[in-house]
Design goal:
It is built from 3 helices and 6 strands; from the N terminus they run E-E-E-H-E-H-E-E-H. The chain is α+β, with helices and mostly antiparallel strands. Strand 5 and strand 6 form a beta hairpin. Helix 1 runs antiparallel to helix 2.
């Protein structure tokens, strides 16, 4: 088995507005993000205890918070696309898995989410698209 390293973020409550709801429809109380990022093992198996040797995820989380609050989103998928692009901007990230879910779905129960997995090739393609847009 190949050695792998992942950064895992679970159950991050996002301050966001997603969707359009009628007066009798259930509005979600919360939107929760799970994020799994595969990174190089050299950023986890380190020889000395220093931030310079690891992946600093704090700026990425700050960017996700910014994107979540940026506007009203019609769909979860659009916010996920923006989060994926933000992740791909970091060269340290090899693969991306995003799960964004809302709750409740109906009568105070259930959660509904969308999951996206980007392999290394797709992540690199998104990264290249992101860099081309900056030019």
């Amino acid at each position: 088995m190949k050695t792998r390293a992942r950064v895992e973020l679970r159950d991050l409550s996002l301050k966001t507005q997603i969707g359009t709801y009628g007066p009798d429809e259930t509005r979600p109380d919360v939107h929760l993000l799970d994020l799994t990022l595969e990174i190089d093992t050299n950023l986890v198996l380190i020889s000395s205890d220093a931030m310079a040797h690891v992946f600093d995820y704090d700026p990425l989380i700050a960017e996700i918070d910014r994107l979540a609050g940026l506007c009203h989103y019609e769909t979860q998928e659009r916010l996920m696309t923006r989060i994926a692009s933000a992740c791909a901007a970091y060269l340290e990230i090899k693969t991306i898995e995003i799960n964004l879910r809302k709750a409740p779905v109906r009568s105070g129960s259930g959660s509904l989410g969308v999951r996206l997995f980007l392999d290394e090739t797709t992540t690199n393609g998104l990264r290249n698209t992101h860099q081309d847009a900056k030019r």
